[in-house]
Specification:
23 helices, disordered N terminus, alpha/beta, Rossmann fold, seven-stranded mixed sheet, two-stranded antiparallel ribbon
Length: 553
């Protein structure tokens, strides 16, 4: 027989002996649970691990519990009896023999470890006086493959609360389905201090025992665990040989007698496994966890398309026309004189100015010109394209992000916020308009004076001077003044229109540019907001997984 007790596990245990290591693991697990809730993942298992870990840290720190776990007939009870040098747990031909957990406890440690056993629901206790094993409580558990359902249920209830495990098998059963089933796959990653005990080696030739041990190691490394860094140690024993026959197992016990390190190692392994389970479910484990659910180039294309479609619905060109018209409407009463006041009053009273010269109201009424169905389409397409590559646990939440009604509502709200964020939409003014208004008022007075003079001249025929105009010849002064007034009025009106149009177009361009920027920003923030919330939670889970992995090394 040979004994395999590598030092790798002892070195890993030493790293975890400090309280800071397990505190980091538990902190990472707490963070992972919070992130998992944000992803709507089932975190009940991780919550149980966290609660159990906190409970265990509050109990005995200078002793740990080792469970003997295995199938029917592999010799768990015989192994314990051989270790003790006397009958501790009944072993016999009738199967299953062990129906309830039996604890082998040091007499001196019994009072201290009583809370541990009460927590495990272990009533049967056998005492010993081996000082070297004072810090170890060994449980003989029922068979995991028993025909009695309550036996396996007992094992599954106890396992989450023990600190170390010896997986007992024999040459006949070590490679059967039991070793490959989900039971061991679920529990091996959660325990740091564990060993596979190949019992009944007395039935094998020495060379055969070595071959079986080697093959068992390969099975553990490849088929069961898939990682040599986390596979249990393997020892070969013969319970039939008494204390000498189980010496390798006893040596393994002595090698890991530091209870604090064992407990911390078990809690670290359990928390790391719980975090890893959550992280893998969210696709947030390892380097793959760095990748976004929707790649950045695909997001940008979708956002650009959504912004383009949104601006079509908002109608920036229409808003620019309204801005120019509003500027001219503002200029009219200031720069067109009394007639401009009258015209402005008529436009306002008829509602024409509100319809064609109110960019603020025009923008707020964007919903009457279209819906957000087309703007939402590229975003939905990007989300739906990402679904097949998304971890199944996240697909419902990601699919919800593409739900048309909610998505269109979010985008519409973003547009409303973008419009509301615009600065004051009051049209600009100019002092030049006031000067033009004064000129138009004086010019109107000239025109009125000319008209009155013409009327008096027609009715009373008073003598008036005349002005010689090329081609036309002499023209009476009243008519000349009227012509000058009309020409000046036309020129002033054109100047007002050109200047107001220039200022209006400049304001309209600024308005359109600002609105475009706000719409782009709002759509960028809101288009994938639901996806971003998932990404934030995934990132937090990925960070927690990295922290747990680093703390648990």
């Amino acid at each position: 027989m040979t004994t395999t007790i590598p030092g790798e596990r002892a070195r890993r245990l030493a790293v975890r002996r400090g309280a800071s290591g397990i505190d980091r693991c538990l902190g990472a697990l707490d963070d992972a649970i919070g992130a998992a809730r944000g992803l709507d993942l089932d975190a009940s298992g991780a919550e149980s691990v966290l609660a159990e870990a906190k409970e265990r840290l509050g109990l005995v720190s200078d002793a740990y519990v080792l469970a003997l776990v295995g199938g029917t007939g592999v010799g768990k009870s015989s192994l314990l009896n051989a270790l003790a040098g006397r009958t501790v747990s009944e072993a016999g031909a009738r199967r299953p023999t062990t129906g309830r957990p039996v604890a082998w406890v040091s007499t001196s440690a019994a009072p201290r470890v009583a809370p541990l056993l009460e927590r495990l629901g272990v009533g049967e206790r056998r005492l010993h006086d081996e000082e070297a094993l004072e810090g170890v409580v060994i449980l003989d558990l029922p068979d995991v493959d028993s025909l009695e359902p309550e036996h396996r249920a007992t094992v599954e209830q106890v396992l989450p609360r023990v600190d170390a495990v010896a997986w007992v098998t024999d040459p006949e059963k070590y490679a059967d389905a039991l070793l490959h089933d989900g039971f061991l796959r679920a529990w091996i990653p959660r325990l740091d201090r564990q060993v596979v005990v190949l019992n009944k080696s007395d039935r094998l030739a020495p060379d055969d025992a070595d071959r079986v041990q080697t093959h068992l190691g390969r099975v553990l490394a490849t088929e069961l665990v898939g990682s040599s860094s986390s596979r249990p140690d393997v020892v070969v024993v013969s319970a039939a040989g008494g204390r000498d026959g189980v010496a390798p197992f006893r040596a393994w016990l002595y090698e890991g007698i530091d209870a604090k390190a064992v407990v911390a190692g078990r809690l670290a392994a359990a928390t790391v496994d719980a975090v890893e389970t959550l992280a893998r479910g969210a696709g947030a484990w390892g380097e793959h966890g760095r990748r976004a659910l929707i790649e950045e180039p695909r997001r940008r294309r979708a956002i650009e398309s959504a912004v383009t479609e949104t601006l079509r619905v908002v109608d920036l060109r229409g808003a620019e026309r309204q801005a120019v018209a509003a500027t001219r409407a503002t200029a009219r009463p200031r720069g067109a004189g009394p007639l401009g006041w009258l015209t402005s009053f008529v436009y306002r009273a008829s509602g024409r100015e509100r319809r064609v010269a109110n960019p603020s109201e025009y923008l707020r009424g964007w919903r009457s010109r279209g819906s957000m169905t087309r703007p939402a389409a590229p975003v939905r397409e990007a989300v739906l394209e990402a679904l097949p590559a998304t971890p199944s646990a996240l697909r419902p939440a990601l699919a919800e992000a593409a739900e048309p009604g909610a998505l269109e509502g979010r985008l519409a709200g973003a547009v409303d916020r973008a419009i509301a964020a615009q600065p004051d939409l009051e049209p600009p003014t100019s002092r030049i308009w006031t000067l033009l208004g004064i000129g138009q008022t004086l010019n109107l007075a000239l025109i009125v004076f000319s008209v009155v003079w013409i009327v008096l001249w027609v009715l009373l025929r008073p003598p008036v001077g005349s002005i010689d105009v090329p081609i036309l010849g002499p023209i009476p002064v009243p008519f000349a003044l009227l012509a000058v007034g009309l020409i000046v009025g036309f020129v002033l009106a054109r100047l007002l229109g050109l200047h107001a149009g220039f200022i209006g177009r400049r304001w309209a361009r600024r308005l359109a540019a600002g609105l475009r920027t706000h719409v782009e920003s709002a759509i960028s923030d809101e288009a994938f907001a639901a996806v971003d919330r998932l990404e934030v939670a995934r990132r937090a889970l990925w960070v927690a997984a990295r922290e747990a992995e680093a703390a648990g090394r």
